[in-house]
């Protein structure tokens, strides 16, 4: 009887939560102030796209469970402690959430912001009603803290409000990552604000909006209005995420021009001014401090029409992609940008590109693609998604890697669920929830198929659903089928022509389409009346190719179409304890570079010698010993886990 009562009460709670969301979803659009520019492309809501690709879906399900496993009271513990309210017997999570690091105390509270954003995205992606009461509990806790403060402030770092009081007086020093010896207080606020905005945008929960607006108003009146221009720029030296973007978000949902004016003051001149002038000043700067700023600059541009911010965002993106990015799409080493000429030297370092950087570059890419519609954004997004993000997760536990070493014979270290809480744990819980973000886009009556990834699409505005079935890269065919459509209607379906495919064949209901006559802006555009059951077949022809490391000549990586290939290197001495570590981000069991195979012939000769020999459903190429120090096999890097590996191979000098 007791179990039946519990189940009945739980069912009531879920139904109540669903009713709240349903009622909220019927409210008018939450955007009050519209941007000044009409998007060239619009990405679909995550609720409209479901990934069916087995690798993506598995990681998404692991992330889903992990998000629900978080203890809301633990996430709120520091906020409650600082507000002087009951912690409900909960102690905060450890490591970055609780311990003194860099002499600046913990980065306490940052994970709650990431978690809120991730829960909102995961709800869109899965429709899981169990997410709603957990998010509601978090909002209740934050609002309790805000009311206890009495001024609209919420914060989680030890004595952080006192730190801000000194900032308001101009009595502060900033480095990166400290403000008055406190670790990135504005960054934590930004993550909290981004989480609240995502929750309001997804669930239309008024409490999320209230907390967000009150917090932004507190920061605007108590900090921004108190600082002159020089003081504000000094504060922005410390990592602050995309705080400018958060104030644009608040302006968008309130229409209160104060927030727009405050957002314009939160733009770091050390970054946007040289970038707008076309000057690359990134060498030596902390990479992930800079990337989110440019998403913010793009947001401010969209609401102010200041073309300097637009130019800055695009120059930065292009500069990072062209001059600071590894073959897997990640950037920097040891978290800092460096000159292109140093890639080969830094390749052998243990700490490679940071996960956070790639997730934030993807956010910036999404924004720029919608504003510009340029194919180069899809090209980059595909590379970093397939070869850094998908390669970065423990396939059994779903936990994320901090640094992905480019050093030959290195290995990955995955964080543990409740003992690490790095910044990359935060972005790590976001990425799987949005795997479907860039697969499709639309504009007016045109659908753009950007990536050939197993998925389904519900294009609600056109009453059309579409399924895409493919096992690429094992085979090179993708089939898109109209699974439902209200009657028949004329629509344009634009199929991306990938730069990495030698040719592209298209059939509609078995009849060939003249690809050359139907190409426009990098897509094959098929405009016709569509009906339920219509099917498109796309045949691609990926090529093997070699990419030399940027600025170098001695190390080469091999690609199959968009897929980075790597070498799996056996080392029986390594155990799961080496791969899963709560507090290490770089391998502590370094192997000599010679443990990785080296190529001994011209790279074109190496590729000509490769023999495809798939095994156990995994793409694989054999490189014979005649072209290397020993025979070895190349396979998708995102399939290599719990092993040493090499993605850059040394070319032996003759």
Walk me through the topology.
Blueprint: H1 2-25, E1 42-43, E2 49-51, H2 54-69, H3 72-83, H4 110-126, H5 131-149, H6 160-168, E3 178-179, E4 182-183, H7 185-203, H8 206-222, H9 229-235, H10 243-254, H11 257-265, H12 269-276, H13 287-304, H14 307-323, H15 343-346, H16 355-372, H17 375-389, H18 423-430, E5 440-443, E6 446-449, E7 455-459, E8 464-470, E9 477-485, E10 489-496, E11 501-508, E12 511-512, E13 519-520, E14 523-530, E15 535-542, E16 544-548, E17 555-560, E18 563-569, H19 576-579, H20 603-609, E19 611-612, E20 621-623, E21 632-636, E22 644-646, E23 649-650
Parallel strand pairs: 6-10
Antiparallel strand pairs: 1-5, 2-7, 3-4, 5-6, 7-8, 8-9, 9-15, 10-14, 11-12, 11-15, 13-14, 16-17, 17-18, 17-23, 18-21, 18-22, 19-20, 20-21
Give descriptors for this structure.
654 residues; alpha+beta; seven-stranded antiparallel beta sheet; 40% helix; disordered N terminus
Outline the structure in words.
With 654 residues, this protein is of the alpha+beta class. The chain is 40% helix and 16% strand. The protein is built from 20 helices and 23 strands. The strands form four sheets. Strands 16, 17, 18, 19, 20, 21, 22 and 23 form an eight-stranded antiparallel β-sheet that branches. The protein is globular. The termini are far apart. The relative contact order is 0.10. Residues 1-28 have low confidence and may be disordered.
């Amino acid at each position: 009887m007791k179990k039946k009562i519990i189940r009945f009460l739980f069912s009531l709670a879920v139904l109540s939560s669903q009713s709240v969301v349903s009622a909220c979803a019927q409210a008018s659009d939450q955007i009050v102030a519209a941007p000044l520019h009409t998007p060239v492309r619009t990405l679909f809501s995550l609720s409209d796209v479901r990934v069916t690709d087995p690798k993506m879906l598995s990681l998404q399900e692991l992330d889903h469970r992990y998000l629900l496993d978080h203890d809301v009271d633990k996430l709120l513990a520091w906020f409650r402690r600082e507000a002087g309210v009951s912690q409900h017997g909960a102690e905060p999570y450890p490591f970055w959430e609780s311990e003194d690091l860099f002499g600046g105390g913990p980065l306490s509270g940052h994970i709650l912001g990431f978690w809120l954003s991730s829960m909102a995205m995961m709800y869109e992606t899965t429709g899981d009603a169990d997410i709603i009461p957990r998010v509601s509990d978090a909002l209740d806790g934050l609002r309790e803290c805000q009311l206890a403060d009495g001024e609209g402030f919420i914060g989680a770092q030890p004595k952080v409000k006192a730190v801000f009081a000194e900032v308001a007086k101009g009595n502060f020093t900033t480095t990166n990552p400290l403000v008055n010896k406190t670790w990135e207080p504005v960054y934590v606020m930004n993550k909290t604000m981004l989480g609240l905005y995502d929750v309001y945008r997804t669930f239309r929960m008024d409490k999320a909006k209230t907390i967000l607006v009150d917090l932004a108003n507190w920061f605007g009146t108590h900090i921004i209005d108190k600082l002159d221009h020089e003081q504000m720029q000094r504060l922005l030296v410390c990592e602050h995420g995309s705080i400018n973007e958060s104030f644009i978000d608040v302006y968008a949902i309130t229409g209160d021009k104060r927030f727009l004016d405050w957002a314009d003051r939160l733009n770091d001149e050390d970054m946007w001014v040289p970038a707008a002038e076309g000057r690359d000043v990134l060498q030596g700067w902390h990479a992930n401090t800079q990337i989110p700023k440019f998403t913010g600059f793009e947001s401010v541009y969209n609401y102010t029409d200041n073309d300097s911010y637009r130019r800055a965002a695009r120059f930065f993106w292009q500069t990072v992609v062209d001059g600071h990015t590894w073959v897997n799409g990640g950037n920097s080493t040891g978290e800092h940008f460096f000159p292109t000429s140093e890639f080969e030297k830094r390749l052998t370092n243990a700490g490679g590109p940071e996960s956070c950087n790639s997730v934030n570059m993807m956010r910036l890419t999404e924004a720029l693609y919608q504003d510009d519609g340029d194919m180069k954004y899809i090209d980059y997004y595909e590379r970093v998604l397939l070869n850094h993000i998908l390669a970065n997760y423990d396939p059994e536990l779903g936990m994320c890697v901090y640094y992905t070493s480019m050093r030959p014979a290195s290995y990955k270290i995955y964080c543990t669920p409740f003992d690490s809480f790095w910044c990359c744990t935060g972005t790590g819980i976001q990425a799987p929830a949005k795997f479907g973000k860039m697969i499709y886009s639309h504009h007016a009556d045109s659908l753009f198929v950007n990536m050939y990834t197993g998925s389904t699409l519900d294009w609600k505005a056109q009453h059309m659903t579409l399924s895409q079935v493919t096992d690429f890269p094992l085979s090179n065919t993708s089939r898109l089928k109209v699974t439902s459509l209200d009657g028949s209607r004329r629509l344009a379906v634009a199929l991306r022509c990938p730069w990495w495919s030698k040719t592209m064949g298209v059939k509609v209901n078995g009849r060939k389409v003249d690809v050359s006559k139907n190409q426009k802006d990098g897509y094959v555009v098929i405009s016709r009346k569509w009906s339920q059951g219509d099917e498109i077949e796309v045949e691609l022809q990926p090529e093997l190719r070699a990419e030399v490391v940027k600025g170098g000549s001695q190390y080469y990586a091999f690609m199959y179409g968009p897929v980075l290939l790597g070498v799996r290197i056996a080392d029986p001495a390594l155990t799961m304890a080496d791969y899963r570590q709560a507090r290490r981000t770089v391998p502590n069991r370094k192997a000599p570079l010679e443990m990785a195979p080296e190529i001994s012939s011209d790279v074109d000769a190496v590729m000509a010698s490769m023999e495809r020999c798939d095994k156990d459903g995994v793409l694989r190429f054999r490189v014979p010993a005649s072209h290397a120090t020993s025979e070895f096999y190349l396979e998708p890097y995102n399939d290599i886990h719990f092993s040493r590996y090499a993605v850059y191979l040394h070319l032996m000098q003759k």
